[in-house]
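Quick start: what a row looks like.
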Amino acid sequence: METRGPVLHIVVVGFHHKKGCQVEFSYPPLKPAEGHDSQSLPEEWKYLPFLALPDGAHNYQEDTVFFHLPPRCGDRTTVYGVSCYRQIEAKALKVRQADITRETVQKSVCVLSQLPLYGLLQAKLQLITHAYFEEKDFSQISILKELYDHMNSSLGNTSLEGSQVYLGLSPRDLVLHFRHKVLILFKLILLEKKVLFYISPVNRLVGALMTVLSLFPGMIEHGLTDCSHYRPRKSISEDAGLQENTPHLDDSVSTADTSDTTLGMGKGGRKVAGDHSLDTQKGSVPFSPSEKTCNGAQSSNSAVQRLKVPSRASPASSESDWETLDPSILEESNLKEGERENTASEQAENLLSAESLPITVQPQANTGHAVLVPGLISGLEEDQYGMPLAIFTKGYLCLPYMALQQHHLLSDVAVRGFVAGATNILFRQQKHLSDAIVEIEDAHVQIHDPELRKILNPTTADLRFADYLVKHVTENRDDVFLDGTGWEGGDEWIRAQFSAYLHALLAAVLQPDNEKTLSDFGTVFVAAWKNTHNYRVWNSNKHPALAEVNSSHPFQGQYSVSDVKLRLSHISLV
């Protein structure tokens, strides 16, 4: 079955009083050879029921969750899930199945998509979920089939450039809640640390986590395609306990061979219609792999190779062989294949040099005209500044919501780090498995390692930047709420400030004799960042557009009495 648009499946997950969470319906079937009502799951998606029907959902009448699934059949593209949960009294049902024995019925309607349109999918899905429950007869599945057709037709030409990608993600609310600590969250992820977000209900969790990621230029649109490569445990019995079992060292993790994947990438903003940005060298490939590929053995797609986990890896270490590679080695390994890679490189350079887009120091709101080229090493579609940074690649996971059954991933040697969300207190209690725990309710960022706290201690220029954000958001709060069109202090404005901050940091590291400039960003922070995978990948390429960017901190300047007050107020907030 060939998919006509970005939506792969519509799935209904229910809670069975004996079997627990299970798939009750899928359209098209999750396994092509089986029926719509099959409860059988692809091995890669074995955690789907627990993600779509989140832990503790019974405490709420309705909720929404965003989650990420691993790719299937050798395709290296993340599958983005949005699930709307509701519960209804069993006595209200017009048709009551024999297996409904409890007083309430709990179900989720879930969309699995190849595009990260979280808020847009949520808005459509909430309406349909409400209508599905209003039928009071869950055998009426025609509305779900109509949803599949409607979404694929309405989203068929949706570009990933523009404000609709950020629907429902509000940096303004994030700054109002976390205030100066927003910059600490931003830097934690830049350093590729193990960051766990915690709160219940789950919609507040995923909203806050994805909003932080939206501060990184291009991250939501193009930076998450490789963020969910993990290997599910092979048996349910292994998932049952929370004991830290020693992983098998012969396990492997999928990594992209960018020399092949870059050849089929499109030359512009990624769209659903036309060539998909992650098409393989074979040319135009439909959104979902063919039935033969998914139904048989693992795909032998040459765009995916197997990288063995280093034998000396340990759960306590986040460093791995691929993370310590010299960029020149990365470059050579990706260019050994010969003419095809040279051609891709030339195309990238030609695109960068041929386009004459205006380059400004202060980024403007996203106009949807960014020129994107395939990164030869990152495998991501990059703009002229090298954005998005290759943070969520090579074993650094983004899991907006983690089910308890995925707990083993926190100590998996093939996972070098993560930004993950959890509602179960067991995750929060095991502090040794993360570098930082973000308690959203109290806006508290708990960093366990004193050295990491020192690295993330904001400089005077950083405090000025954060204070600038907080003041503009709070002072313009009423205006933004009234007309919804405010620029300063609004969502797009905040994203533009973080984009300017990151561009300035990148421009600064390229300058000779830059010690004084980098000290405004934090000397120890910059030194730590230069050891990350995302920095080495970015630094292995040239980004001439950054020559036009001011290479100093946006808030550099002489120390004053107001800075002392700012420092004291920050200390009191920590």
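That is the whole record. The two ends are 54 Å apart (CA to CA). The chain has 21 helices and 14 strands.
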